[in-house]
Amino acid sequence: MDAAIERTLEQAAAVLNGPPARPGYRGPVRVGVDLGTAYVVLVVLDDQGLPLAGRYQFAQVVRDGVVVDFIGAIGLLARMKAEVEAELGFALTSAATAYPPGVRPAEVRATQNVLIGAGLECSRLVDEPTAANALLRVSSGAVVDVGGGTTGVAVVRDGRVVYTADEPTGGTQFTLVVAGALGIPFEEAEELKKDPAQARLVSALVRPVMQKVGGIVARHIAPHRVETIYLVGGTSGMAGMAEVVSEVTGVPAVVPPHPLFVTPVGIAMHDQP
Fold first, then answer.
1. Is 12 in contact with 51 (CB distance < 8 Å)?
2. What's the rounded Cα separation, in Å, for the pair 191 and 179?
3. Which residues, 6+ apart, have CB-to-CB distance to 76 below 8 Å?
4. Whether the Cβ atoms of residue 259 and residue 173 lie closer than 8 Å to each other
5. What does the pLDDT look like over 196-240, one tens digit per residue?
6. What is the CA angle 85-3-264, rounded to 5?
7. Is there a contact between 164 and 127 (Cβ–Cβ < 8 Å)?
8. What is the pTM of this model?
9. Would you call 145 exposed, middle or buried from its count of C-beta atoms within 10 A (0-12, 13-18, 19+)?
10. What is the pLDDT of residues 60-109, one digit of tens each?
């Protein structure tokens, strides 16, 4: 993984839910909003394309790319926007956002309307794997976004996305398996899933779901020549994920640091300052 990409993601991890990177900054910004099944993320980039500020929060306002709690989504995003504006000392007026491949146009418009409802002009709509590749700059390979509810696959050739697909199965399914196996509530399973001390236990429990993700990827990349799979999305960071996907597909798989933030940063890169 390119060192500059790793530095960008490390900075994203530092400023999202943390202090701004450049206090007093007053230059142009680019804003990205990722309305995910598990997390809503708002990220602001500075004039150098580096993460400046942002927020992220676990929320279930979207299911499989479809906004199921319109009022809740608007309220959460408006609060995040207000908090970041207070930190930066200026208003955020526009943002780009993204959608899983294959989502119906009506649902894409609903995502756009969440931004408008929260006080942001929607400057650009882009599919999630394409957004992720704006940061990763993959010239040839497959970008796989394992989100909260779905797994999105984009095949890239000569720097262009030539094929996209999206299927159910993501972080929510992993959490449900953990909850069922251990007999605990969904919310408790979600927290346990993110606990590094429980990584080995969780990995053993969810291995069949990892294999299902690998099967989805294998099916969609089969007609294409893919030499490397780039896994993004929060679920991609689970212990053993890259190894299982590589095992099922027969293709090397890599995970960047802080994979949850790859797509949001890539979305922000599509905003027009």
1. yes
2. 11
3. 40, 57, 59, 61
4. no
5. 999 999 999 999 999 999 999 999 999 999 999 999 988 898 999
6. 35
7. yes
8. 0.90
9. buried
10. 787 766 777 888 899 999 999 999 999 999 999 999 999 887 777 777 88
Residue type, 60: Q
